[in-house]
Design goal:
alpha/beta; 6-stranded mixed beta sheet
Length: 186
């Protein structure tokens, strides 16, 4: 099998009800592209892994216990075979039609491309609850201050990497929980 040009990693926790639709929507958002879809079941305890397999995911990785989104993304990144890797949330908080824009940025020379919920052309399919949204904004502002970074949205669940960048970054990451994004960007 020839390696896929694009590997899409879907960290999934208790996602048996949505994973099949997500796999289908990602494939349909990238017609004519070689796409490898990797679902990483983060110790769900439901049928997420089986639903992903039945939906046609190219790889299904099952973590035996719930370790966190960082651990799930890392497992997917380290098992991907494409030349460009993207991860996004299995609930598709970001429309899959945004993935090609990340790939374009990578093909234009970027090593890492970030989605942003704060970008004027961004669109979210599902919005976070108000308290979570406010907490995310505060956390992002704090992160920008401490790391002296200009990233508009460190916590956005849509990020792309070249294969080389993904390997260099994810072989070094240690954070398994929600703050893994900050470690990855740092």
């Amino acid at each position: 099998m020839r390696p896929a040009a694009i590997s899409v990693i879907l960290p999934a926790y208790r996602a048996s009800s949505v994973v099949a639709t997500t796999v289908a929507r990602i494939r349909s958002a990238m017609p004519g592209k070689e796409v490898e879809i990797i679902v990483v079941d983060d110790g769900s305890g439901d049928d997420t892994d089986l639903a992903a397999s039945r939906a046609g995911a190219d790889q299904v990785i099952k973590l035996q216990e719930n370790r966190g989104k960082g651990a799930a993304v890392r497992a997917g990144m380290l098992n991907a075979v494409g030349s460009h890797f993207v991860f996004t949330d299995v609930d598709l908080a970001y429309d899959p039609s945004q993935i090609p824009a990340l790939i374009d940025a990578l093909e234009s020379g970027a090593d890492v491309a970030l989605g942003s919920r704060r970008h004027p052309h961004s669109s979210e399919i599902t919005s976070a609850p108000a308290l979570r949204e406010r907490g995310s904004r505060i956390f992002n502002q704090f992160t920008r201050l401490v790391l002296r970074s200009s990233y508009l949205d460190t916590q956005c669940g849509l990020k792309g990497f070249t294969a080389d960048a993904a390997h260099a970054i994810f072989t070094r990451t240690k954070v398994d929980g929600f703050a893994f994004d900050v470690e990855v960007l740092h």
